Each structure stands twice: as structure tokens, then as C-alpha cells.
Amino acid sequence: MPELPEVEALAHHLREHAVGRTVARVDVASMSVLKTASPPWTALHGREVTGAGRRGKYLDLDCGGLHLVTHLARAGWLRWAQTLSAAPPKPGRGPLALRVHLGPPGQGPGFDLTEAGTKKGLAVWVVEDVGSIEQIATLGPDALDLTRDEFGALLAGRTERLKTVLTGQRVIAGIGNAYSDEIMHVARLSPYATPARLDEGQVDRLHAALREVLLAAVDRSVGQHAALLKGEKRSGLRVHARTGLPCPVCGDTIREVSFADKAFQYCPTCQTGGKPLADRRMSRLLK
Predict the structure, then answer these.
(1) 18, 161, 165: which is closest to 102 by C-alpha?
(2) For the FPG-type domain, which residue ranges apply (predicted)?
(3) Exposure winner among 172, 195, 220, 255, fewest CB in 10 A?
């Protein structure tokens, strides 16, 4: 899933390549991705792109006061091209969900919003006020905007697992499964730690790790071609998606805890005092 660094890089790419161009046409290949009906997507036609930004993990393309907002979900992506086919896409064919022509169709550049797999979550809104989107209105503070004191106050009283707090978008916006694993590893904290029970030193480490991991990922990502961002993200990960490989810090084997539709990874030596966390999936298999 694209997280804060990748979405920031995509916004940067659009600021560099889309701002100043005019939306010539929008092709919708999957009506289910549209979460708003008024204004219609055709209202974007003829509007100049005046900005591009990020709200948590949401991508915001400002077209002269009318916003095309996208959440890429787990398997969505933005694919930029110098020339897009002029032929309207056939609905329901392949991963293409929506196409934006930023020049005469078949002659100018633009981008596709695509989504792989059968479980669809890609969402697109066309709105005048980005704050009118409930999912954005209810976002917590952006992860990179939090000071140490604000971060500490946010954790105080939280009894959920640390992993849950870091990935809860209504608590902190922008962090997902992958970077939360990386942040907790750098901070040397268990995913199952209780935020309210962290001492001041642990909160210091966690806040410093949050900024270190996210800012390093932004630095690696911004300026990369959109097609290279997924590979860039994988190359910078130390524990996430590295189950069975040695920890780059201590050499212990990276472990995994799996749930119904996702998993997280951690290092027992660095994060849990050498004790593996219970994995319900493995427990069932061993019965």
C-alpha cells in the first residue's frame, strides 16, 4: 500500500509535470471508484491543474478549485505517461480504473489510476472542498507535523497495541503497515507495546524513529519516476516483508505475525527481548 512517502513523491511528480497543463478529458473505466456524483467528473474538463498535494495517504490534484482526490488503497497506483491512447478504455477490462488526459488525447501526457487484484479499494472523489470528504475530515494530525510533545500527548492514555495506534489514520495520518514496522524496529519497541505505558525515553526514541524513517523514505522517493517508487520503497525496508531473513542490526531471524488479510514483521532480539510474539495462524497449524 502506498504510504506517506510514496504519496508525497507522487504529489511532487504531479507538481513537476502536471501543474500548468489543462485537463482535456477524463475517462472512467470503473464507475465503482467514483465516490461522488456532483460535481461530475466531466466538470474537470478544460480546467488547468494549479497544484498537487497530500493529505495523509490521500493524493489531491487541484484543478483550479475543483479537486480530484485519490486514495490508492492496497493495490492502487498512479502511472504517468508522456502519451496516452486516445481511445476510451473499455469498462471492466484490466486494472485501469480512471485516465486523465492533460493534453489532446493521443497527443499529450497524462496519467492512469490502476488497481491490481480482485479486492478493490481504489477511491476517487471530485469535490470543491477537500474537507467535505469524511475520510479526510476525520484524519488525525499528519505524522510529519507532530512535535515530540504533541506526539507524547497523543500516546498518553492509549491502551491499544502500538502497531494499531501508529497505523490508525484517525490518530496519526500517513503511516501504514510497512513503515510502522520500520519505525518500531528503529525505536526498538514491540508492536504489542501499550502506548500509555511507554516511558519518556521510549517516547523520545519512537518520535525520533518516526521522523528518521519517514524523512529518509521521502528523500529516497521524491524525484523518482512514479514507476520506480514501489521498488524504491522495498529497497529501503529493514524488517517489513523480510520474514526469515537476518535482522540487519543484530542478525536474529525476522519473524512474522499474520492476520486474516495482512501481516507484520519484527525482530525478537531488537524489539521483544528475544521472545517471539504469538502468531494465531501458526498456533492453529500446530494444534
Answers:
(1) 18
(2) 238-272
(3) 220
Strands (E), 102-214: 110-115, 123-127
pLDDT tens per residue across all 287 residues of the chain: 899 999 999 999 999 999 999 999 999 999 999 999 999 999 999 999 999 999 999 999 999 999 999 999 999 999 999 999 999 998 877 899 999 999 999 999 999 999 998 888 999 999 999 999 999 999 999 999 999 999 999 999 999 999 999 999 999 999 999 999 999 999 999 999 999 999 999 999 999 999 999 999 999 888 777 666 766 677 789 999 999 999 999 999 999 999 877 899 999 999 999 999 987 654 433 33
Distance CA 57, CA 111 (A): 18
Sheet holding 51-55, edge to edge: 51-55, 58-63, 66-71, 123-127
Domain with CATH 3.20.190.10 in the chain: 4-137
Domain with CATH 1.10.8.50 in the chain: 143-286
